[in-house]
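SMP-30/Gluconolactonase/LRE-like region domain-containing protein
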Amino acid sequence: MRVVARGLLALLVFAAAFALYWTLWPAGRGAGRECELKSGVHALCGLNKPEDLLRLGDSDWVVTGNMGNDDWAEGGFYAIRIGDEAFRAITPDFSRPAEPTYGDCPGAPEPKLFSAHGVALRARANDEHTLYAVNHGGRESIEVFDVRVSAEGPALTWTGCIVLPAEHAANSVAPLPDGGIVVTIPQLPSVSEGVVLRWGPGGGWTEVPGTRFQGDNGLLVSPDGTRLYVNEYHNNRVHEVSLAGTVTPPRSVDLGFHPDNIRFAPDGSILATGHPHSIAVVALCGFVVRCGIGTEVARVDPATFQAATLFKRGANETFSGGTSAVVIGDELWIGSFVSRALLIVPLSELRQPLGAPAASPTHELE
């Protein structure tokens, strides 16, 4: 009898595990009907792990990163034309020496090892930009590119790098008005906390006070350069921290999910994208068995620092693990750290109009 009971228990455990696995599988393979659609909620399939993305000014082009393989190798960038969603891989020119601004840079990365994790843009004149990319392939660094946009699309030329301190790995990067940058470090060596580090031309890395959180992740700088917005992944929060050395008290809001990246919407609000599952499920499904991870996008009002959910869905065979959302025309484009696709959502499908204040917030400021 005990043998039968044990057998039934084992069968029940197996059935429960199989049910859970089936619920979470498949995991954003960039396949299925959403890849064939061109309107409504649909997907742009065939891109590898487009974790972060941004529009190149007012041009017809979006650039996404490619995080590469499991060992970070063979990543890079994609250029996507907005009108017809045609895309191609971008091969940067790595042949030039580093500019004097990056005098400590040891040289260009090995192209086959380069990956692009978080990306950020500094606009210049005449459809020219400086692009910053967090790189894990071959070294932990911020790689810097000159971007020129023409009718044929963007062309990228490597201009230098900023190597991270030893044993530090960055997640997101954002430019500062003074020509410097800030980056998030999700976990410092030998401690459980993360931090935001600041770098300026001619100087080294310094810690930004008040940014030691549990899993520093997405990062934005306010338009006037006086404030940081930092995602605390482990504790479901977005924080506002002063950059100007003022006594303005920090603010934070609980989103109810783990926020990955943040971007500004055209109305000045903040879009935070992340994962409604537990961290254990995200780790298991993102890096071990490749099961599915849900996606949630919230809007944070920078005036009231209240948040409301705009979009939420589970994973399917097309898309899993959303990480970054940007407004492109009348659509929301969402990247992923595991999928072979971008998800494209009409703004009309969101739970509230994006341009309106965040009425009836789901989570309150502390």
